[in-house]
Amino acid sequence: MHTGRSTSDALQRFRATPESVGQRLDQFLTAALANVSRARVQVLIEQHKVQVNGSVARPSLKLRGDELIEVLGEAERPPLKATPEDIPLDVVYEDEYLAVVNKQAGMIVHAGAGDEERNRGTLVNALLFRFQKLSELGGEARPGIVHRLDKETSGLMVVAKADDVHRKLAAQFASRQVKKRYIALVGGWPAEKGTIAAEVSRDRLRPTRMTTRREGGRTAVSHFVVRRKLETRYGKFALLDVDIETGRTHQIRVHLSSVHHPVVGDTLYGAPRVLQEQATLRRGKRENLNKNEQLSLARNFLHAAMLEFVHPVTHQRLHFERVLPGELQNFLRKLELKDS
User: Fold this and answer.
1) Do 185 and 323 reside in the same domain of the chain?
2) How far is CA 294 from CA 82, 137, 265, 282, 285, in A?
3) From the centroid of its chain, how far is CA 100?
């Protein structure tokens, strides 16, 4: 499709070939550039950062097959700014310095850089509407955010209303003074308790995932205790308390998956999308009770149930707990429901 590619820090060159005749410029570059979407390519072209034979061009330009195509840098992403939205919030605690909220599953904490579409319905937008003034250390896209929870994880988070409070809270997280406990339901029966100390880094093959299989990752430590073992018609499961010393991206999810006990509902890390009823023993012979019986969960069974830290201003130790949300309690009931 293309030959003669050369690169430098600010310039990439491609030579179109006869196979490219009639192809649109944006299609050609989408295939030529690694990990760059067609939308990003079109932004590059619109910002005049692509030249064909020394001149700017349109995304729809049809190639003749012999052009020199130059990419002059990267597309500039407009800075994101959180926008107040009237979204219901479960506020557990609030004073003039900070607040503790119980985040629902399905809500993104904040949008990623340049991600305009996902900049709606975020936790920071809800926080701005409710509190108006938050710390600014995280920038305009992440006001007040000291730590994060994954989109499909629910539970307790502390947010800062002032920069000095944000700094002191962040220091507590960095020095591992903050106590956090999660409740997780996993597939299978792990040991009664254990510690997983495995470095976490980005998966090179699947960038949306983290992995424990690469060297040179960030130190991560998770401790778990089995609260309850479940033997159900869908298989064996265990309800865990998980305490984490560190707060790496996807830490609990990737750690539990690495020991072959993925969090229920977490298809990114190996959990099945649908639980199927298994064959069981009845009257001495093995049979399928109901081939059509299925159970699924539209989120991860992971909930930040406890949060404890020292108030940066009053120096009082604050302790908060929240039970499993209704959808997880209902799932547990369905999972343990005995066949009549």
Assistant:
1) yes
2) 40, 46, 13, 20, 22
3) 20
pLDDT grade for 129, boundaries at 50, 70 and 90: very high
Residues 118 and 244 in one domain: no
Whether 27 and 117 map to the same domain: the answer is: no
Q: Which of 159, 175, 191 is the last residue of a domain?
A: 175
pLDDT given for residue 164 in this prediction: 97
Residues 85, 212: one domain?
no
| Residue position matching structure tokens 């590059």 | 44
Distance, in Å, from the CA atom of 67 to the CA atom of 19, rounded to the nearest integer, reads 12
Q: What is the pLDDT of residue 36?
A: 75
The β-bridge partners of 24 are 62
* Tally of domains in the chain: 3
Residue at which a domain ends, from 140, 175, 210: 175
Look at 137-141, 209-213, 225-229 and tell me which has the smallest mean pLDDT. 137-141
Q: What is the pTM of this model?
A: 0.75
- The C-alpha atoms of residue 250 and residue 200 are separated, in whole angstroms, by 9
Q: Which of 90, 115, 150, 164 is catalytic?
A: 150
pLDDT at 320 over 90: yes
CA atoms within 13 A of residue 10's CA, in its CB half-sphere: 2
Q: Given 3-state DSSP classes, what are the helix, strand and coil percentages for the chain, each rounded to the nearest 5?
A: 20, 30, 50
Range of the domain at 121: 77-175
243 is catalytic: no
Q: What is the mean pLDDT of residues 196-207?
A: 92
- The DSSP symbol for 45 reads H
What is the SS3 assignment for 82?
coil
Same domain, residue pair 24 and 159: no
Asked whether residue 239 falls in the same domain as residue 200, the answer is yes
Which residues, 6 or more positions from 4, have their beta carbon under 8 angstroms from its beta carbon? 13, 14, 15
Q: What is the pLDDT of residue 116?
A: 57
